[in-house]
Design goal:
Length: 555
């Protein structure tokens, strides 16, 4: 059966051959070559790819060029031309076309001898990148372990991390087209100028010691050259130092903007889980790319924050509560006129203005508060409340001059006396050196170290009566301990706290200024011990004392 099938196939084949003298006759010669197409063309000064359109006998080509850069429009050279198979033309590479009228005709003949006239229009080129732009956004993309179920990604404006970048947003970037290369890719002059403020932004945070300019400065400052690669859709900028910056170009048709994007080194293996500021990690290691959005229309900035403010005689850093628009500044109590406190430093959101400036004075006389109004570049206003803390100038070295004990007898009158009158060994305390060191301020509470050091006699006082079973050491010594202790002062209430640390306060006193120093007035638990009566007069101290005052005089 298989042999019979083969026989019939051969028979049919011989029959077909018998019907045609030459089976390849239709493919020989040129009669079958009907195509008259221009596949591609490149002219002198051309930028980009020519737009080729044909509708039967209607054939047009649009070529874009910087016509002002073409020396003679009557002799525009053909640099390259590709035709369909078998087609030909007299206008080959090296010949010229006349575009004095804006268009020229080019005849294409097919292999079969049929002609088609192509109309070529020479149109002025306008690059989607050409012109002067403002910087609308500078953003980054961070991949925070998205391959994990708990990971996430983040798109963020870099100036939200680095406010020192804000002066960048009134800068201008200009791309000028000068010509095109042999592939029709445009090139020209690049210029990045500081805006009206004359300042470039910086990818830095001076307060934190961060400098990310080498990581994110992908659009260089100053002048240089640029070219566009249509095939790769990239913009290549070469700065004045011949450093090359390659950026991916995206034309945002809907908004009339362009986006220039660059990759940055992604280093999740360097992520530090112990880093207190994760913004640093996002900037330093977890960002994958960054971009600039360029816009033709300047976008006024909306920020109306006070970034920093200082006043005359300020002590310590300014404290900010951005959520409630509250600011606290602290000064030393040096009898300054708080109704006219000079502003020595003021920094606002980029482009914003305030109703005060450096050199003006603030009036804190109404409850130690005042207000400042900040208006954004876009015209949005915000009122900030400034609170003033007047820190008493307690830092220094003092001598413990005396100590009074106050008694409220249950059966008699109140009295106070020098504790040494009944406890003579307490006299050793009276030449002690009290050193108060100010180490900073948190909110309205300055803090530091207080030291109770033995004086010339090398001894501390003893609150144990030599002749009676009355020992006040446990009642009094912890109030002003020997050696070094932590202190902080609530400047609103005047309460002076003493302890092992901020979290281990062991005593508190009301701080009262005197002409020569201060009084530390400690409240004592009244009737801490119920009267035993066998103490006699010393029940006064064991049970009915209610205040202990330590006088310290400035050396």
């Amino acid at each position: 059966m298989k042999n019979l099938f083969k026989f019939w196939i051969l028979a049919i084949g011989f029959l077909l051959v018998g019907c045609t003298d030459d089976p390849l006759e239709d493919l020989e010669g040129t009669a079958w070559q009907k195509e008259r197409n221009i596949v591609s063309i490149l002219l002198e000064g051309q930028i980009g790819t020519a737009l080729i359109e044909r509708d039967v006998e209607e054939a047009t080509i649009k070529v874009f060029a910087k016509t002002e850069n073409i020396k003679d429009l009557s002799k525009v050279a053909i640099k390259d031309i590709q035709l369909s198979y078998g087609a030909s033309t007299e206008q080959t590479v090296g010949t010229t076309l006349d575009f004095t009228s804006g268009e020229s005709m080019l005849e294409i003949k097919s292999g079969a001898g049929e002609s088609l006239i192509w109309r070529i229009e020479l149109l002025p080129f306008k690059s989607d990148l050409e012109g002067t732009w403002y910087i609308g956004q500078i953003g980054l993309y961070a991949d925070l372990f998205t391959w994990e179920s708990w990971g996430w990604e983040k798109y963020e404006q870099i100036n939200n991390y680095l406010p020192e970048l804000n002066p960048e947003f009134d800068n201008t970037i200009t791309f000028t087209v000068e010509g095109a290369d042999e592939n029709g890719n445009p090139y020209g002059v690049y210029e990045h100028n500081a805006g009206n403020d004359g300042v470039y932004g910086s990818f830095t945070d001076t307060a934190n010691g961060w400098d990310f300019n080498s990581r994110f400065r992908k659009i260089p400052k100053g002048t240089g050259t640029w070219s566009r690669n249509f095939e790769l859709n990239k913009v290549i900028i070469t700065d004045a130092n011949r450093v090359v910056h390659e950026l991916d170009l995206e034309v945002l048709v809907a908004t009339g903007e362009v986006s220039l994007k660059a990759e940055v080194p992604y280093q999740p293996e360097l992520f530090d889980w112990n880093e207190q500021n994760w913004s640093y990690e996002e900037l330093a290691h977890m960002s994958k790319s960054m971009w600039y959005t360029l816009t033709k229309d300047y976008e006024a900035q909306t920020g109306n924050d006070i970034m920093s403010i200082t006043v005359a005689n300020q002590d310590g850093d300014t404290s900010f509560d951005y959520d409630n628009h509250q600011i606290t500044v602290t000064i030393q109590d040096n009898e300054a006129d708080i109704s006219a406190l000079e502003i020595t430093g003021l920094e606002l959101s980029y482009g914003a203005t305030a109703n005060v400036t450096v050199g003006d004075v603030l009036n804190f006389s109404a409850g130690n508060t005042t207000t400042v109004t900040v208006t954004s570049e876009a015209g949005e206003s915000q009122t900030w409340t400034l609170n003033l803390v007047v820190k008493q100038a307690i830092e220094g070295t003092y001598t413990l001059a005396s100590a009074l004990i106050h008694v409220n007898q249950e059966w008699g009158s109140d009295f106070n006396k020098e504790i040494s009158a009944d406890f003579p060994d307490a006299l050793a305390e009276y030449d002690n050196q009290i050193r108060i060191i100010n180490e900073g301020v948190e909110g309205d509470r300055p803090f530091g170290t207080i030291s109770n050091e033995a004086g010339a006699d090398g001894m501390f006082g003893d609150f144990n009566h030599p002749d009676a079973d009355v020992d006040l050491n446990t009642k009094l010594r912890h109030l002003l301990p020997t050696g070094d202790s932590y202190w902080e002062l609530d400047t609103t209430t005047g309460i002076f706290y003493i302890g092992l640390s901020k979290d281990e306060i062991t005593s508190q006193a009301t701080l009262i200024a005197t002409e020569t120093g201060y009084v530390l007035a400690f409240e004592l638990p009244y009737r801490e011990l119920e009267p035993r009566w066998d103490y006699g007069n010393y029940d006064n101290y064991m049970c009915w004392t209610y205040k202990y005052e330590v006088y310290i005089d400035k050396n």
